[in-house]
Amino acid sequence: MGTPCLGALELFLRSFSVMATTQSLNSDDARLAELGYKQEFKRHFTLWETFGLSFSEVSVVPGIASVFFISLSNGGPVSMIWGWLISGFFITLVCIAVSGTRICRSYRRWIVLLDSSVCLSTMPKSPLVDYSNTIYLMAGVASLAWSIALQIAACISIESNFTWAPTTAQLFGISAAVLVAQALVACFATRIMARLQSFVIAVNFALILVVIIALPAATPKEFKNNATYALGKFDNINGWSNGFAFVLSFLTPLWVIGGFDVTAHISEEASNANFAVPWANIMATSLAITTGLAVNVAVAFCMGNDLLSILSDPTGQPFATASCSRAFIFLTISYMRNLYSFIALALFLSEANLTLAASRQTFAFARDGALPLSFWIYRMNKFSATPINAVWVVTSVAFIFTFLVFAGPTAITTVFSLTIVAQYLSYIIPIFCRFAFKNDFTPGPFHTGRLSAPISILSLVWMVFMMVIFMFPAIPKVSPVSMNYTSACLGGWVLFVSCRGPIPNIETERDFTSGAALMDESGDSSTLEKKA
C-alpha cells in the first residue's frame, strides 16, 4: 500500500474485520428484518473498505487545499495550527456522539436519522432531519464538483505558466463534466466500489506524505519560518475583529472533516455494519485530525510570511503558493502540476464515494415514498445490483446547484455553507432526542458509557454555535452581494418539503405516503407503479 505503516493499518483493520464478521454472519440481515426491511444490496464492504470510504470523504490534503484561504486570512499561522487543534477536538466529540447514538446502529439509511429521531423520542415524526440529510448530501456533491473544477483549472494555469485564467463558464463546464464522470463511477457494482477504497486510501496517504515530508525537505533551512512565527504569529487581514477572525478559522477543519453519516448510508453494503460503521468513523476522523495538523504545521513552517502574496495566488489556489513558494527554486512547475493533479484525483474519488452514499440515502428515502417519483427512484439495476436511477437523481440536483455559480461567488458559497449547516442540523436532532425524550435506547458495540451525556452536550453546543458562525458573511461590510443567504436557503427548503415515515417494505403490498405506489408480490422494486 505504499508505506509500511499503511500496510500495517490495512492488515490490522482487515484482521479486525474478519474476527468481527465471523461473530455475526447473519446479524446484519436479521437486524434489517427487525426494522421491517429486506436485504437488497450485496455486503462487500469490509471494515477496511468502510474506513476507506470515511477517510476519502475527509481527503485531508485536498480538503485543506480547497479552503486554505479561510484560516490563512483569519489569523495566519496561529489559526492554521491552533484553530485546527481546537476545532479538531470538538469535531472528534461530534463524531463520537454521532457514532455512539442509534444513528450508526440503525440500518435504515434514510436512515438512520429518522430512526433516531423517532425511536429515540416520543416527539411526533418529523421530516426535518431526513430532508436536512438529503440536502446536505446533494449540496455536498455539487460543492465537491466545483472544488475539483478549481483544482483542474489550477493545473491548467500552472501548465500555461500562469498565463491562463478560467472564466465562470469554463469552470461550470468542468464541474458538469466531473459530475457526469463521477456518476458513471458511482454506478459500478458494490464489489468494485469496495475494492476501489484501497486505491483511495493510498492516494490520500501519498499526498499527506508529500506535504509533511517532501515539502520541508525541499525548503532550504534559511527560507523556513521560525517557530515563533509558525506557532505564534497572528495575522488578521480579513476585516473582522481578531477574536471573531480566530473563530472563523474554525471553518477550515469543519469543511475538511465531516460526513460522519456517510458510512451509515452504505450500511446495507457493509459486513457487520453495526460494528464497522461507528469504528470506521472514529478511526478515519482521528487519523484525519492528526494528519491534518501535521500538514498545517509543515505548510506554516515552509510558506513564507507574505500572506497577501499567497492569497493573491494567480491560480486562485493559495495552497499552491503556500506549499511551493519558498521551495520554488527546487520544486519545478512539473512538481506543482503533478501535486494539483493528484489533489484533483483524490477529490474526484471522494466525490464518487459521496455520490455513492448520497444515492443510497436517496434510494432508501424513496423506498419510504418520501420523494417525488419515488416509484421510479426506488429501482435496482439488474446488471449492477445498484440504484442507478438514484445516482442520476443526485447528480441532476447537484447539477442544478452548480448553476448558482452564474449568480456570483455569494450564491455558490451559500451552497457550500449549506452542506455543513444541514449536516449538523441532521445530527443535532437525533442526539438531542436521545437525552431529552423518553426512549428505549440500548448501546451498540461502540458506546461511551457515562461519558455519553457530557460528550453529547458539548457536541450539541459546538454544532449550534458553528451553525450560527456559518450564517455570517465572509466580510464585515455586508451588502446584498456579499450577504450570506444560507439561513434563507435552508429555511426555504425545510418549509417546502413534507413527508411521513418510516414505511416498512417487508410486506408484499404497501402504500407510499408521498409516492403512492404498490409493490408486487415478488417484492421486485422494478415493478412499482403509481397507485390509481
UniProtKB/TrEMBL annotation:
Predominant cellular place of this UniProt entry's protein: membrane
Protein name according to UniProt: Putative amino-acid permease
UniProt entry keywords in alphabetical sequence: Membrane, Transmembrane, Transmembrane helix, Transport
Entry GO CC: membrane
Top-level division of the source organism's lineage: Eukaryota
Annotated localization: Membrane
Keyword Electron transport: no
Topology of this chain in the membrane: Multi-pass membrane protein
Lineage: Eukaryota, Fungi, Dikarya, Basidiomycota, Agaricomycotina
TM segment ranges: 51-72, 78-98, 135-159, 171-193, 199-218, 239-258, 278-302, 327-349, 390-409, 415-437, 457-475
Annotated GO MF terms: transmembrane transporter activity
